[in-house]
Amino acid sequence: MVTESFLPSLNGVTTSVLRVLDHLRAGGHEAIVVCPGPAPREYAGFPVHPVPALDYRGFRAAVPSRRLTKAVLDFQPDVLHAAAPFGIGAQALALARRQGIGSVAVFQTDVARYTRSYGLSLTHHAAWRWIRHVHGLADLTLAPSRASLDDLAAAGVERTMWWGRGVDSALYHPRWRTSTAGRELRERLSPHGEALIGYVGRLAPEKNVTELAPLARMRGARLVVVGDGPDRLALERTLHGTDAVLLGRMEGNELAAAYAALDVFVHTGTSETFGQTLQEAMASGLPVVAPAVGGPLDLVQAGETGYLVAPHDATALYGAVRTLVQDRGMRARMGEAGRRAILPRSWHALCEQLVDYYEGVARPLTVR
């Protein structure tokens, strides 16, 4: 497992990698992890091999090195899994091809669109050329949504299949709303019965979090932001003078209680290959509002589990959220429908599918 992101960083890539490793451990498989350092030395009993990395605006970008080559060749894997490959993932896939190791690349981060968010729009086309090269090294590329598969096809990436993302519907559950933690949080955030509009995720340019600002001025509602990242100060400045609250980073039961304490979930990122926080919100019984682009197109049933709005359309976003804030019955119906929609999406089922993909590309190691 060669991943561009791992603990202690928490994001969609890390979460997916951890769930896959948990499944491999439960199934009696063997694995190692190669990732940006610093990192824990093991996870789920599997050795972790950190490689040198550099910081860029809150990201740890690993640098290709001999450590990766040695770790892979010493382990002699049946399959190499490259999670969101770009830097060390590209090195690993090239190594796998040279050594005759079957490989699966998981397209999880739309780096080409991210370049625009980080002021690097001149490199957008170069990024897609690099993505086409990197994924061309893999025996199979897996993508989590129809939009992502279409993007890869348009870029000339071949040998692609769908592989989604699971959600822990036992952890993210509406029952947290009536738990002690959920009640106390709601009483603190909504002392006068305000509807709570929530965002959960990384506070970074690609998430467009400053577009949440108009929602902080909606009558009868309060904006609640969970997460941290390089855009936190910019968001705080934008929200100055409102009663919006930034709760910072949360995990586990604390995060589950925070989701369930909300009334409406809003996402503003337009470069999502999937949208894991949308699934977690739906599992928690919330109606969701998201841009009609990328991963959300597969997740949100417009008019049934929430609303899809035009990207960067502040008026449409405000209108959709206001409709939900003003209609408690609609919130309940959409939240229940969203919960039902995500129940079949367990990590166990998706990881079993992934192991099938592994078996499809596995072949004996042949040193050339």
Features:
single chain; 368 residues; alpha/beta; Rossmann fold; 2 domains; six-stranded parallel beta sheet; five-stranded parallel beta sheet; 16 strands; hexosyltransferase activity
Q: How would you describe the overall organization of this protein?
A:
Keywords: Glycosyltransferase, Transferase. This is D-inositol 3-phosphate glycosyltransferase. It comes from Ruania alba. GO terms for molecular function: hexosyltransferase activity. With about 375 residues, the protein is an alpha/beta fold. It has two domains: about 180 residues, 3-Layer(aba) Sandwich (Rossmann fold); about 170 residues, Glycogen Phosphorylase B (Rossmann fold, 3-Layer(aba) Sandwich). It is about 40% helix and about 20% strand. It has 14 helices and 16 strands. The strands form four sheets. The protein has a six-stranded parallel β-sheet, sandwiched between helices. α1 crosses α14 and α4 runs antiparallel to α5. The two termini are about 20 Å apart. The mean pLDDT is about 95.
